[in-house]
Amino acid sequence: MPIQYITDARGEKVAVVVPLKEWEALQEKLDKLTPAEAAASDDAWQDYLAGKTKPLAQVIKEQLHDRED
């Protein structure tokens, strides 16, 4: 079963349904994080929520531009 999104009347995503096996695998990965990794992950999430991140397409473009091969 793929991930499913639940939307409101305006079409805005308000919830997500994740298959149980995928959820459990994610929880296992999170449980194995070191305190430093967990803090870095939380910092990254807070940056995302605050709009301080770049779109993936922009990051890829920048990375490809910086290549030396």
Look at the structure and give the mean pLDDT. Answer: 91
Stretches with pLDDT under 50, minimum 5 residues: none
Q: What string gives the helices and strands in order?
A: EEHHH
Structural class, please? Answer: alpha+beta
Q: How large is the count of helical segments? A: 3
The order of strands across the largest sheet is: 1-2
Note the overall shape: extended
Portion of residues in beta strands equals: 5-15%
Number of strands: 2
Largest sheet: 2 strands, antiparallel
Gyration radius over CA? 17 Å
N-C termini distance: 40 Å
Query: What is the number of domains?
Result: 1
Fraction of residues in helix: 40-55%
Folded structure, characterized:
The chain has 69 residues and is α+β, with helices and mostly antiparallel strands. The chain has one domain (4-65). It has three helices and two strands, in the order ββααα. The chain has helices at residues 20-31, 35-49, 56-65, and strands at 4-7, 13-17. It has a two-stranded antiparallel sheet. β1 and β2 form a beta hairpin. The longest helix has 15 residues, at 35-49. The mean pLDDT is 91.
Entry summary:
The protein is α+β, with helices and mostly antiparallel strands and 69 residues long. The protein is 54% helix and 13% strand. It has one domain.
Topology:
Blueprint (H helix, E strand, L loop, with lengths): L3 E4 L5 E5 L2 H12 L3 H15 L6 H10 L4
